[in-house]
Amino acid sequence: MPKADKPKILVVNDDANSLFALTSLLAQWAEQESYEVVAARSGEEALRQVLTHDFAVILLDVNMPGMDGFETAEAIHQRPRSADIPIIFITAFVADELDRLKAYQQGAVDFLFTPVIPQVLFAKIAVFVTLAMKNEELKKQARQLSQRTTDLIASNERLMREIEERKTAERQNHAKDEFLAMLGHELRNPLSAISSAASLIGLPGVSVEAVGRAKQIIQRQSGHLGRIVDDLLDLSRAMSGKILLNRAPLDLAALAASCLDTYRTTGRSAGYDITLAAEPCWVEGDATRLEQILNNLLDNALKYTQPGGQIEVTAEVEDEDVVLSLHDSGVGIAPELLPHVFDVFVQGTSTLDRAQGGLGIGLALVRRLVELHGGSVTAHSDGGGGEGSTFVIRLPRTERLPVAKDCDMDSLQQGKPAVLLIEDNEDGREMMSMMLSCYGYQVHHAADGLQGLAVAASARPDVALVDIGLPGIDGYEVARRLRANPATRQIRLIALTGYGLAEDQRRVLDAGFDMHLVKPVDIDNLMLAIGGAPSAAEAAPPAPAAVPASAPATASAGH
Asked: Which residue has the higher pLDDT, 229 or 44?
């Protein structure tokens, strides 16, 4: 056993000769029995030693000046750490019964009378040293067992975490598999309708009415495809924290009323009883994103409510919050699904026909957008047996904004600027040129960046619609070269791109563009963007420096 682990014996005696004799006698057996001997010449010194070391046994002289043996024993056993140290009293006098009783009351385990018989001393000491060693061994085993138990508990916790992580991964993989299947279904349906409608238009003998109907189907299904792509990209940006909000004070009640009017106008709410009860509720938020939140909640309610059902929307102020609530009379939410309705790709029970459609990402996007506004969203339902469901959004309230005058849009319609379209996709270029021509614009077009620069230099258009992903030189380089040329620097440059992140907008504006539009471009937004440029006849002489970039237009996301 290492020296540091050897049991220690404390010998306490005020008489130097007696102390030397006892310690010397004990030292003869110290190596054999593997213990150490510590000496103290008073009760006070003994207490100091007890504060420093643990002892297997204490040999304590009874008759000492100052603090005698009984007082010393009492003081030693008052300390919890040393309360169990066995004490053998040593005395030159034969102790009577009262002295023995007093000694035992102070924690004595035995008496030794001087002169001490070596064999008796050895026998008694050996017992306590052996006990101390066994006790230390038991403590060591207990520590090892405790450590082993701790290790096993930690291993079990790791194993349980791994099992749970594996189950979560399996659930996520299953959800992703289902999502991919749903995505394929959701994409094929509108693509099939578009393909059929396009084929119908080209058939001989088709009536004008059928052609018109086919065009409406193409427009509607194209919009549906655009919304699917928008949802996917919005969710990706929201989950990665790349959505930047365009915050401004707005009335949430007015926004809700506008959304419901759009649903009624487009026929999306036909067959449902939708009511709105709202008071002016001002929040600081992004109007586009808040409208997206409400649209997703309405779409979810329509999806799980049978025609003829009721949908109630309310908006009110509660203390420092604005509370928007949407309640439907639909199928409701099953208890096991309720905690997960805002998770990605989670949907209620779906059937093979997928009549309701959807990707299961709308509510996940709702939660993230609400959180970006500093609010919270919760779902409530009494079950999935037709009890309906309620979604409640809480947003921080703000002060009402004074009503500003509407912009005079007539000034944007006073001229027809000449337009240059630089687009490498032949079908896209042809359709955009035809559409702009139908609106009365003179259109020049180019299939790549270098050709676009040449056309711009010769035709001197008022507006250039430039695709970013061009062969040869990209749209950024086209913009930089147009701005560097005094003959073309006054052209209004509008970027057309499938990338709609905030950094994409910054890169577009840094390259010299005036505006950033995301494909597919809404025709109204495009007409507004083009109409903001003066015609060649009205244009002022080119400035000596580049035209400063204006604020980017709001456009739906695409890729």
From this structure: 44
